[in-house]
Specification:
Mean pLDDT of chain A: 97
Number of domains of chain A: 1
Largest interface: A-B, 28 and 30 residues
Low-confidence stretches of chain A: none
Structural class of chain A: alpha+beta
Number of strands of chain A: 8
CATH superfamily of chain A: YjbQ-like
CATH architecture of chain A: Sandwich
Strand order of the largest sheet of chain A: 1-8-3-5-6
Largest sheet of chain A: 5 strands, antiparallel
Shape of chain A: elongated
Helix content of chain A: 25-40%
Number of helices of chain A: 3
Oligomer: homotrimer
CATH topology of chain A: Jelly Rolls
């Protein structure tokens, strides 16, 4: 199990961690298996989506902010109920297949750590499981 | 593979099953691995989020009810199309890492069975896979 | 690792691939394990939900189209920002338990490939991992 440390700078911010996860997979030296990702925070998530055009992540950030408005008569007193809702929609885990020692996915796909209550210091857990 | 039986009492209700899953992980007696959760219903889901303040789950319940209104000109004739939509947004599966014989996650995180068409008798499937 | 080829015909279309995945699981000849599904596209996803009444999938298609409207002042210049948002909400992966050589899930559950930017030629990756 490895961890990637992330420093976010905005309240809602999708951070591209593709290169860092790909490096961990390469260093693991396994032939085939699954790369499991887990976010141990309750106001953040993880997402696989296009990372070629950074505008896509911006559009999805805005979409999440629209789906869960910051103020909507929430009960939770800490002022970040919307962040918890966005984390519920994004999800805390992802899994990508590994083949030939690399992530076996789409050429446009990237991994984003989804900050919904930044800025903060965060971490993404990575667990690489070999088929053999 | 183990199963957790759940009796829900409201139409939309997030039931905290953290202690029951944590007990299954402890009883499994494995050192490291992954705890996989699966919901075998089509109008329910599973979510990892804060369980320290129960208001958070209430706010997320309300958010899901807003995102998929009960009546919106649906085709499905059983009157629970919104429940299926909420299940699609929540997802039917979750996975949490295990280290040192325990769930290796955030201190505020909990596991919620997400009822979207209660009250009903439900079940959550739990499969604990060891790394060794 | 196997792949299922899918030809979609509408912009937003949930394609029922249950029988094809079930066949792969049966052919794998394993007793118990996990069937992992992965979508290697950035404008598509995968979902487990009711497939007995096809109206349910239609209702969920419409709900996703409402949650992410086609035009909403997006930055991404390709005209399919909404497709990326829907893929983020649906998710790119799913996992179902296998027991007694078959998918061990609910009797009403089915697997849908979720097209959000069709019509296109797509593929769904399937990886079957045995417990033994």
């Amino acid at each position: 199990m490895a961890e990637i440390a992330i420093k976010t700078e905005r309240r809602t911010q999708f951070v591209d961690v593709t290169a860092r996860v790909a490096r961990l997979v390469k260093d693991a030296g396994i032939r085939s298996g699954i790369c499991h990702l887990y976010v141990s925070h309750t106001t953040a998530g993880v997402m696989i989506n296009e990372h070629d055009d950074p505008d896509v992540a911006c559009d999805i950030e805005m979409a999440f902010d629209r789906l869960a408005p910051r103020d909507a008569g929430y009960r939770h007193a800490e002022g970040n109920a919307d962040s918890h809702i966005k984390a519920a929609l994004a999800g805390t885990a992802a899994a990508i297949f590994i083949a030939d020692g690399q992530l076996d996915w789409g050429r446009w796909q990237g991994i984003f750590f989804c900050e919904f209550d930044g800025p903060r210091e965060r971490r993404l857990q990575v667990k690489i499981v070999s088929d053999e």
